[in-house]
Amino acid sequence: xxxxxxxxxxxxxxxxxxxxxxxxxxxxxxxxxxxxxxxxxxxxxxxxxxxxxxxxxxxxxxxxxxxxxxxxxxxxxxxxxxxxxxxxxxxxxxxxxxxxxxxxxxxxxxxxxxxxxxxxxxxxxxxxxxxxxxxxxxxxxxxxxxxxxxxxxxxxxxxxxxxxxxxxxxxxxxxxxxxxxxxxxxxxxxxxxxxxxxxxxxxxxxxxxxxxxxxxxxxxxxxxxxxxxxxxxxxxxxxxxxxxxxxxxxxxxxxxxxxxxxxxxxxxxxxxxxxxxxxxxxxxxxxxxxxxxxxxxxxxxxxxxxxxxxxxxxxxxxxxxxxxxxxxxxxxxxxxxxxxxxxxxxxxxxxxxxxxxxxxxxxxxxxxxxxxxxxxxxxxxxxxxxxxxxxxxxxxxxxxxxxxxxxxxxxxxxxxxxxxxxxxxxxxxxxxxxxxxxxxxxxxxxxxxxxxxxxxxxxxxxxxxxxxxxxxxxxxxxxxxxxxxxxxxxxxxxxxxxxxxxxxxxxxxxxxxxxxxxxxxxxxxxxxxxxxxxxxxxxxxxxxxxxxxxxxxxxxxxxxxxxxxxxxxxxxxxxxxxxxxxx
Length: 583
Prior knowledge:
The structure is a single chain. The protein is α/β, with parallel strands linked by helices. It contains 15 helices and 30 strands. The strands form eight sheets. An eight-stranded parallel β-barrel has the order 8-9-12-15-16-17-20-21.
């Protein structure tokens, strides 16, 4: 016998439809309804509320074989599949993350196809694979942030069994797995939660209606979210969750949802005997997110740091439009690499107000902040989804990599950046509702028209070719200039792993020197200096040392070290030579 339960506090009657047969459900406390019925693996079911003839999928459905608009399927993972009984997990400190989108990581776009490339990540020096959202969404392809079946796994990727095989394969290779989860909104197609109860509020954020985290009925909604997070960690053996846009979680209760989630995750980690990490995406520059609970913070393990991305990208590329306006100087780069946030109680011209707050460097390690040269947002939210490799030289890409991978932050790569992939990563959707599809395409064109882009230049997110163009081309890996850049990334990550100076997470022990006019920059980590020439012409930088790794030959000069244009060298105090990633 299997118990079916559903929360529908305002319903007068609820029936379970199981394989075409209806079963009345009994009202329990707290607005819950339940019934016990014999049901095997794969049995199709849904719920009927009052006199509405539409059979609704289960809000906690484990599988949606025919898509998010159809009935749910009974599904239990096969526990005999797991081979990771000796997996002890990975703490965040010392990790190297690699963000990927299952649908575009390989031509096939499945978990099983992605498994075939895991050895590439191990050789690269990655320790943790971060998956963009894989919960069930409308259509066949999507970035994943329009998910509506939060407990199910997208069928076109391989469903829940495919995710299980993927996680197990990662653990077998020593790779941890982080999953991106979205709790601030639901997608515009296939969201049936309001039919059951007050899951949403009248308030809206950028992407849709807000979740009801603090109004009447919010206890059950909060439990729905927390149970979902714990399901990924417990049932799918995941090691971390990246929580999307936590600044859009509207919660005015005394105990914030994030605080509650940290408490429950910590308890689960103790039970499982392995570390579990919670990582926030936040636009607030609010240190409370990653301040320990004992010191009055929420106690999240880490957070993405867009300030570091912006500081590195603008310094190297020279771009200054939009939210890049305040960035670009080497003083800004220094501030961000040594203090974490650039906007820390300072004026943001893009926002037109004071933004952020300084973090305590004696309390919060730099490893709690994620550093990246790019991610899905910073590429995909450009008008044509062009990667930095489309407009920067290989040397500039190498400089960006050196500054991020050898910083005190936890580094994160975006799929393909390690070889300078030339394929774009564009915004794509496959909404089945023609009205929503048309609105999505029109909204995308209008958004970039405001910034001077022609509507003809902005890819139609609903065009299947937009999705196909965004798939990685793995044949690039062995060709130049890709192979040289890949060797550089491998060298940088090997250096990060081998030298204790780069494992030191404390921002108080990170120093920098620079010359704004000559465009050179030095990142100092103990006895090691990461020396970067951001200009086109060669320059003598006033530092000496043994070359541990370099993009192009670095030669000793009486006044320092001669560095080619758009190049870097990693120098250690002393004499001798190291590795040069030559052409």
